[in-house]
Design brief:
The chain has about 90 residues and is an all-alpha fold.
């Protein structure tokens, strides 16, 4: 565990709201990263995905960089546009 991980774990133990907010924010960040990786693996630009989804490049950028409160249908459409399918898990 590196210093950053140790710091995060310490803050989570000391401040319950930090833990809750950190974990929620991290999950949203991770969704955006996964979408961006899928797009790049498909060899597509943001502009190309935007065209497939009949939207603007700025909307794709927002999805990849700020994935909070993203609609399930948007996730499904994005995945389809980059040649993937969406798989959800309730854990």
């Amino acid at each position: 565990m590196d210093d950053l991980d140790k710091y995060i774990e310490k803050r989570k133990k000391e401040i319950p709201t930090f833990a809750k907010n950190f974990d929620k924010g991290y999950e949203q960040f991770k969704i955006g990263v996964l979408l961006k990786q899928a797009r790049e693996e498909a060899g597509l630009t943001q502009e190309q995905v935007a065209k497939k989804l009949c939207t603007q490049k700025s909307a794709i950028s927002r999805i990849e960089n700020h994935a909070e409160d993203i609609r399930l249908s948007t996730l499904e459409n994005f995945a389809e546009a980059v040649g993937k399918h969406l798989r959800l898990e309730v854990a």
